[in-house]
Amino acid sequence: MQQPTFTLGVEEEYQIVDPQTRALRSHIGRMLEDEAFAALELKPELHQSMVEVGTPVCRTPADVRTELVRLRKAMIDLLAKDGLTIASAGSHPFSHWWDQEITPLERYVGVKQDMGDLAHRLLIFGMHIHVGVEDRELAIDLVNASRYFLPHLLCLSTSSPFWIGRNTGLKSYRSSVFRGFPRTGIPTKMESWGEFEQYIETLVETGSIPNGSKIWWDVRPHYKYPTIEFRICDACTRVDEAVCLAAIVQALAYKLWKLRRDNLSWRDYSSRLIEENKWRAMRFGLSGRLIDFGRRTEQPAPALIRELVEWFLGDVVDELGTRKEVEYVYRILEEGSSADRQLRTYERTGSLEAVVDQLIAETAEGVTGVTEQPADRPAQTEQAGAAVGTGIDGARVAHGRPVPLAVEAATLAAAAAAAPTADGNGRSHPPGPPVAPAPRPDPRPDPDLRPPS
Questions:
Q1: How many CB atoms lie within 10 A of CB 426?
Q2: Three-state SS at 115
Q3: CATH fold of the domain at 8-373
Q4: Where does the pLDDT of residue 371 fall: very low under 50, low under 70, confident under 90, or very high at 90 and above?
Q5: Residue ranges covered by each domain of the chain
Q6: Positive or negative, the Cα torsion across 435, 371, 238, 27?
Q7: Which of 58, 160, 206, 234 has the most CB atoms at less than 10 Å from its CB?
């Protein structure tokens, strides 16, 4: 079996933010007209307050870091000329989707016509990681096996606890918003590349989609490029977090290939079971518990992530030379994800503007020489004060208009009601207690490793 290249490519979706009001600013049209932005190969998105950038093909996570630093710095420097900046997180803490302008390109106007308010509401920001796997049948095998680990990746990347000025109670509200679109979520197991091609051909021939780019699963074999694409992550705020996730994804693909080469595979679990863990990751992130389906127990999410890194990936990170990038995971486990840090900032300051300040500062960490967050400060202008009300729960006012909390509350309640209960007695699980240091990896064979049937 020929070894894949395991090259990397990372796409990041940034928020375009006014640092004075801390609100989103529709600005992509102006950027596309400016020759200074042309070298960055910017990709417009549905909303004009969002911009996507992508690295070239990278050999290593260190290369990914170099490219992301270059892209973030260029974006920050060029936007500064217009008095704007970027922030990287899965959702904006208070800007409302109905205030955002749709990018006036045919493809996005068509999406708005097809999806209605579901499209306009899609004011969310993600990070997509591509791994080079040239053999299409092998790509299907790796997608099938990697599904199990998607909730672990989501826990580490959660960065969207707020939505139009409210604490949603979820660490990744972006994941909840994206569920409104078709062809999303954890994919079902596929038997072959031919099955995947037939699926796309059927949807294209019936007028459902124009091509495979409209398959928005949490992980997918790319229909056009020789990669598998991990799409589950919220946008990472710190560049170190993005590099760490890319290194983990590369190591995961490499380890799963080695197992397949040695006539082993990771046990397949139904997408229904994996969706249960995804729900827990969305809801509680690193403060919750995930299910170890092999042992049929639930464990603190950080303990299972440590097991993934230390036991499952521990041998291959040295082969790849990526231990430094992968082990940044311990800082994430210690300090929490971006969502955890945002929530702590709000609890400390009572200010969503302070949360935006934090996102702006952390997005620039390691990029522009910023190493510390700015001091907490209240909203400084009348415009900022009018953009968002004072309390995070209850009635809110955004840009002078009441926010329809009933609609958002109903959406959240529906998502919670649709999720399976955490145990057979119908009890829901609060966030887990503080996590003790993980035990040493169990030397016994893992129940999820088995020869392929």
A1: 7
A2: helix
A3: Creatine Kinase; Chain A, domain 2 (3.30.590)
A4: low
A5: 8-373
A6: positive
A7: 234
Average pLDDT score over residue span 206-217: 92
> What are the start-end ranges of the H helices in 147-264?
150-157, 173-178, 193-205, 239-261
- pLDDT (tens digit per residue) in 254-313: 999 999 999 888 888 999 999 999 999 999 999 999 999 999 999 999 999 999 999 999
Give the chain's mean pLDDT. Answer: 82
**Residue 163: CA atoms inside 13 Å, Cβ hemisphere, count?**
27
- Cα distance between the two ends of the chain: 18
Which SS3 state, helix, strand or coil, does residue 399 take? coil
pTM > 0.85: yes or no: no
Residue type at 228 in one-letter notation: I
**Are 352 and 162 a contacting pair, CB within 8 Å?**
yes
Nearest-angstrom CA–CA distance, 113 and 120: 10
DSSP state letters, 314-383:
TTHHHHHT-HHHHTTHHHHHHH--HHHHHHHHHHHH--HHHHHHHHHHHHHBTTSSB-SPPPP----SHH
